């Protein structure tokens, strides 16, 4: 849905920024020392290469914990008069004042990956992220395709009540309930600790030898789940689906331990983020929320360009 206030803000910013439309778009992420964020950089570069009016800079702190450094990078971008900013905020509160300053300087800001604190919406023009509910439904659909509509499916989750978990796991459960007779075991919460997920999955596999499927809902949980499946000698004996796409999870897919992994669209965050700023500078109305989606990666497509653009 496009909210009018964003359309008005975008148009006003485009008019104010008219003199710097053909300028630099600063892409500032949580850290540059991560393959995930380097994939965002690749997407942003792809967007810039598709046009001739703008240039792009890519920067971020050495670590996600260096919040003050990221604030300084945004300050510097504003001070040098960039045309627009794509920002992945490392802290929902600390980045609000500089985003407000960008707004007051008529510099459009597109937020990617993580939201700013409530009340900051008036200072940025769009938010790009994974629609975790849609992602959970996509994984559930894959589970039904491969495991069938009857039997038990275990959910290995991460932190109860976190926004991404509510959408991802809640919509996975709802989709199964509405479209199958599959019985859910769990969810179990690893607190995003790989070792905890390994131990929990070991116990679940032992207590439920008749499981037809299992879902690991984020990276450390899915890695622990995969290791437990290997240790229990259960690889290939049940449908195992993971979320995120680091090297461990990729290897589990290649080895047949996991049937597929749902990987967030990091490349799309960069590409669509830059294109959204360009649209705003051109006076176009943009959606307030843009889903950057997930790519389902399995043995058949893991070496494809689509998969390689999101794996890290």
Based on the model shown, name its key terms:
Peripla_BP_I; 6-stranded parallel β-sheet; 312 residues; carbohydrate binding; SBP_2_dom; Monosaccharide ABC transporter substrate-binding protein, CUT2 family; Rossmann fold; elongated; single chain; signal; 6-stranded mixed β-sheet
Strand content: 15-25%
Q: What's the overall geometry? A: elongated
Main pleated-sheet profile: 6 strands, parallel
Q: Give the name of the CATH architecture of the largest domain.
A: 3-Layer(aba) Sandwich
Give helix and strand order, one letter per element, not per position.
HEHEHEHEEHEHEHEHEHEHEEH
Radius of gyration: 21 Å
Structural class: alpha/beta
> Stretches where pLDDT falls below 50 for ≥5 residues?
1-20
Helical content class: 40-55%
CATH topology of the largest domain: Rossmann fold
Count of beta strands: 12
GO molecular function: carbohydrate binding
Family: Belongs to the bacterial solute-binding protein 2 family.
Domain Periplasmic binding protein: 25-284
Subcellular location: Cell envelope
